[in-house]
Description:
It is built from eleven helices and twelve strands. It is α/β, with parallel strands linked by helices. The protein folds into two domains: 205 residues, 3-Layer(aba) Sandwich (Rossmann fold); 97 residues, 3-Layer(aba) Sandwich (Rossmann fold).
Amino acid sequence: MPARPEVLLARRGGVVELLRLPALLVGAVSAARNRLYDSGWLPSHRLPLPVVSVGNLSVGGTGKTPMVVLLARSLAERGMQPGVLSRGYRAAEQNDGGAGLNDEGRLFQRLLPDVPQVQDANRVRGAAELSRLGAESIVLDDGFQHRRLARDLDLVLVDATRPWGLPAREPDEAVRALLPRGLLREAPRSLRRADAIVITRADALDADGLARLDAELEREVPGKPRLLAEHRPVGVRASGKGAEQELGLDALRGRRVRLVSGIGNPEAFERTARAVGAEVEAVHAFPDHHSFTAEELEALREGGELLVTSKDAVKLAELCVPHLVLDVELTITRGEKVLTALLDALPRSQRTLERDAAHSGLHG
């Protein structure tokens, strides 16, 4: 299997350093674009319903999908019928049995069955469609760089294990660079636009490491609220043979498995699997959003039992290849009151206000 891009980019020296030249251009274009939005020369379109954006600075997995699920459920608890809006990256290539949705979309469909969702590269048009479908609030997935759609709350996720996109190569610190030299979409100073920073996978660092990251972020954006979150395993399922079977986390303890994933941060998946006691025999990390085939999975299964992520499992459902699924949820471990206050301060759509008024009148 060819090396993943982040593995190659994590190296220092050699031909890869030539990519710093186009990275300078990416940085200049990004900065110029942000200035045009900040000055109003490029307009942002505001809809009459609150928009909460979940984003990051880098390409790759920081935990946006479980964060979107957490926020959608929180908005629903507040009586603000949420809708999920995403770009739908590679949906056309992954839509077998998925109603035109990509892997994240199908996972949202599973975890948020009562929440409407739209996948559209034109976020303004997609948001209008969600409003038409009855949404009273919108959770914008991967929206930090998509400034055409105005938002009322901007949450930016920073992966504690890869704060600036690339993994560290001992004993060096991780390369911190924009695309294509690194994995940053824009410079860290852009975090100033965020309303709050959520440090995900915080439990993967020891106290000293977390303190260093906290201090680094404080230097970049002084005074910005910083929350901590963990990806906690919540269950194991056996799938691929028709009906799924819930096994419970203890089913992985001492169990020999081969990890298969097509996600942005496969190392995090491996850490989680080992943390619940799985005996990892091999790791097969495919590119993010990889479209699996039954043939390649059957070939991997010859070496042992397969364990996949929730995100990958939705793509395997049609392939009828036996596998185990490790489900995780995001939990806020520091700053929960901050997030509560930010969500409580969101404006209510007219539809929400009218419904609340009618409900109040019924009990008045």
